[in-house]
Amino acid sequence: MGRPEPTLDDEDPRLIRCRLCREEITAAQYRISVQGAHQHAFANPMGVVYDIGCFSRVRAVSTVGPETDEFTWFKGFKWRIAVCGRCRVHLGWRFTSGTADFHGLIIDRLLFSDNEH
Question: Per-residue b/e over 7-21, b at no fewer than 16 CB within 10 Å?
């Protein structure tokens, strides 16, 4: 089974929500550094640039589509598309390797209650 969903306090000013539907997605405490940084800018094969932040834990996020390592942004990691569990908007990707996993979430699709990102 996966990890339990993080417990997020509705009054916590560090909550990070889906910008579209306001679903609780993660919290500031789950920000992590991957390959030397929390935030990264990457382009997909079609040239669309995404600014993403890396998070160790999320909730109310579903993955869709097959897992692949094609065009991965993080060497050694496979990825799947991640969507909001409530409104289904594309929020980013779940990256997995044999020993680690994290979510790369698209910064401008999140609402930061602490006005930071």
Answer: ebeeeeebbbbbbee
Specify whether the CB–CB gap between 67 and 79 falls below 8 A: yes
Give the tens place of pLDDT for each residue, 20-53: 999 999 999 999 999 999 999 999 999 999 999 9
Q: Which fold has domain 31-112?
A: 2.170.150
The reply to whether the predicted model has a pTM over 0.90 is no
- The H or E element containing residue 83 is strand 78-84
Domain boundaries, given as residue ranges, for the chain: 31-112
